[in-house]
């Protein structure tokens, strides 16, 4: 199982079914939000899913597919590929593939991002961010199940920014704070006592 920063839960299933499922953050027992994300090659075990830090790419290890498999799949370059041995798949949206040039300037990153006190014991959590320019940002908090429990918008200035996040209504437990701008995405875990 793997969560992305949007709170989507990806579940890898083997045992002959070979499915990858995605459970959306809005999922409840009364209103299910479960979708089939992918079907992997016959006989394999999909495992080890992870994302690149910018979440433009997903990686899945395909272990022990059926060596007699001859069914071809078309890859992003239009080539026929047969998966009949262990491999790692790289998955991305079409709009991301081939868009980065070696000469492109790297996107700015948050030079510093601290969350304190951690564990949070009071009504607020302080987020101290150092940013390279003035830009809008979204702060999101996800619980341990991947559900978004808080979201607020702000404007980051160039330099050090000190933001207050209200946590008094959160139950005790483990949380993930995600700060996103148009050019960066930073994730920090914290505990609410």
UniProtKB/TrEMBL annotation:
InterPro entries: PhoX, Secre_tail. Residues 115-188 form the Secretion system C-terminal sorting domain. It comes from the Bacteria. Gene3D superfamilies: 2.60.40.2550. This is T9SS type A sorting domain-containing protein.
